[in-house]
Amino acid sequence: MAEATTIIAAGTTIRGHLQGTEDLLVQGAVQGTVRLDGAITVDAGARVDADAEVVAASVAGIFVGRLAAAEVIELEATARVRGDLFAPRIVIRDGATFDGTLDTLALPGAVPAGPSSTPAATPVAPRPAAAPPASNPRPAFPPVTRPPVSAPVALPPAPVAPPPAPVVVAAPAPVPVETTIQTPALEASPVEPDADDDEPELPDAAARKQVVVKKRK
Amino acid sequence: MANTVIGSTIVIDGEITGSDALVVQGAVKGRIQLTESVFVENSARLEADLDVETVEIGGVVTGNINARGKVEIKAEGKMVGDIKAPRILIADGALFKGNIDMDVGR
User: Fold this and answer.
1) pLDDT number for residue A89
2) DSSP label at residue A43
3) Of A2, A207, B8, B99, which has the fewest Cβ atoms less than 10 A away?
4) Quick check: A112 pLDDT over 90?
5) Closest partner residue to B13 among A3, A13, A16, by Cβ?
6) What is this model's ipTM?
7) Would you call A20 and B10 a contact, using CB atoms and an 8 Å cutoff?
């Protein structure tokens, strides 16, 4: 939670675009778009017609539109909601009415640490791949689908960034036509004994990858 | 009556209407129409036309103000635009550029 909490009081209506990095309490009305790096609370008696992207949402009043939360959406017993909800965790309490679509799997990379306990999330393939780059606390929402695969793959070679000496030795290895990045990694073992015995397989393979890249250029 | 508070990190582009007093600490661009007062705090930036009861300016306001009561520009306040109001206070140190209409002809 940020230092200040924004309150839209019961007699107030906001139309347009609202964005910020703190929590928002709506007791009145909001129409338009909401982009919040914080939580939105729609009180009983409040009405929000919006396309909203937030960290967390709690709805006890009326919400119409699209609501995407990076962590959790809770529909309280008095909630009246129509639209599309996206969040890794969605709670609908007894008494709430809802008409629309729910999606707890649509947020690639939007599962920072904690929420990974969600049982529905684990079996899905893209989810674990997206989890490691938790460094970005506010990842893309459904419309902005990033390819999450590239980031984790790129990580291992990183520590071996400076081109080491074995580059020269490794040069003959790529002679067989190597089109994909995976192939040099597989052929690493035959060349390994000739090059260096001390170095682990991973760095050596990484170095050879770099050579391949150079040859392509 | 409860106040509406626009926090310091909030940016609103659009229109605020209603019958609650409004405290602005963040940024509002567009239009504000209230039957109550607006308090523009030091951290606030308003790029808006105001049609309200009273206004108290400690931040930066660009736009025109139409107030039924009082407009006060405090020492830290900065206002660029026209003011139409029966009572206007400008504190020592306040910055102001624009026209003032106190409707004295009526």
Assistant:
1) 94
2) -
3) B99
4) no
5) A16
6) 0.89
7) yes
| Gap between the Cα atoms of B55 and A8, Å rounded | 18
Query: Is B14 in Cβ contact with A18 (below 8 Å)?
Result: yes
> What's the pTM value of the predicted model, to 2 decimals?
0.64
Q: Which residues contact B76 (CB under 8 A, 6 or more apart)?
A: B42, B58, B59, B93, B94
Would you call A17 and B14 a contact, using CB atoms and an 8 Å cutoff?
yes
Give the gap in angstroms from C-alpha A80 to the nearest C-alpha of chain B. 23
| Banded pLDDT at A130 (limits 50, 70, 90) | very low
- Backbone φ/ψ region at A141: left (φ over 0), alpha (ψ -120 to 50), beta: beta
- Judge whether B47 lies within some domain: yes
Extract the tokens encoding B2: 């409860």
pLDDT tens track for B37-88: 999 999 999 999 999 999 999 999 999 999 999 999 999 999 999 999 999 9
Domains of chain B: total: 1
Residue with tokens 């392509």: A216
Strand B78-80, strand B65-67: pairing: unpaired
Residue B32 inside a domain? The answer is: yes
Considering CB atoms only, which of B1, B4, B26 is closest to A8?
B4
> Which domain, by its residues, includes B60?
4-101
